[in-house]
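Reviewer 2 asked us to include a model.

Predict the structure of this chain.
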Amino acid sequence: MAAQVDSFTVPLDSKRVVTLKVVAARARLSLATVSYALRQHPKIPVATRERVAEIARALGYRPNPRVASLMAHIRGAQARPHQERIAFVWVHTGRAAARGDPFLNKVFAGARERAGQMGFALEEFWTNDPGMSDQRLEQILRARGIVGVVLSPVTTAEAAITLGWDWRHFSAAVIGNVTWTPELHHAGHHHFLAMRLALLELEKLGRRRIGALIEPTSNGRAKRAWEAAFLTHHPDLSAAPSLVRVVDEAGLQGVATWLRRSGPDALIVSETSLLAAPGLRAAIRELALPVITLYWSTDTPRGIGGIDQCYDRVAAHAVDLVAAQLNANETGVPDLPRIMLFPGKWVAPALPGPATPARTKRGTGVALPATAD
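Predicted model (structure tokens):
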């Protein structure tokens, strides 16, 4: 069995190791040109890049991972004026939001640092720029010879995202868990393990009747993983269904009443904005509850603990996914997308003293600090 490429026949069952030198000889190009072409460097014409990639595939060329790692190290150690670029595409996020949101700043900083460590320059693009369309942005990236693409987290309420690109020309990875069509490689937060971690840590603090308020958008994007973990790993499985509420803005009106009625000894909120529910802070103080958020950051009010999702590291792993594809000359929609999920780190709430054993209605604990108002 053989494959036909550029009027030559390549045996597919050959066991000979195909080196870069073999590809260069077949393409009648220098080693340097072939190396640049396989890395989709903009200094090489698009037609040449495509021809070299086709020859390499037909020959069965596979890059040596040790050499690829060494070259990445060399690229990172050199200050070059013409670094290979990776695009960081802000998806459905404007420039003002990208600059002003602390979470998004942390995400971009993590991606930029990792790209620099690997010898790449990270260049920003926005789908929301005036006059920009999906097709126009694709044309810009291809004209600049940019193949690697990191796609930002999506902060809008969209359940699924589609960019009308010809993905055959890109090595892409998504930051976050929102569904893409077609599905690409992802680096994101492991919501299930994060909730399980929060429950285990609260149990260590003597809390067993733990309540949870979860907003539906993030829960839905995570395939209801927060809710599932709460119901399957709660210290009191029989009580768990009555201690969790998935609430949207309209459902916040009755939250304080529910909290007093269910009488938890700690409260997990998916995000601190839920604490604005009418009467909720008063109910938290009345029950003297420690509060945990699943979106903890350095901006979280003092005394509230939770899960630091470490999205700077998540973004760095998205860059790793892109770099791995570039090193392996992989472009296009993956037949089996890789999904890298990370549970984050536990940040303990402020507790004035040893926690008390489980209780049903009232008890001692730490009050919500005034700064949470």
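The radius of gyration is 25 Å. The first helix runs from residue 20 to 27. We have added this to the supplementary material.
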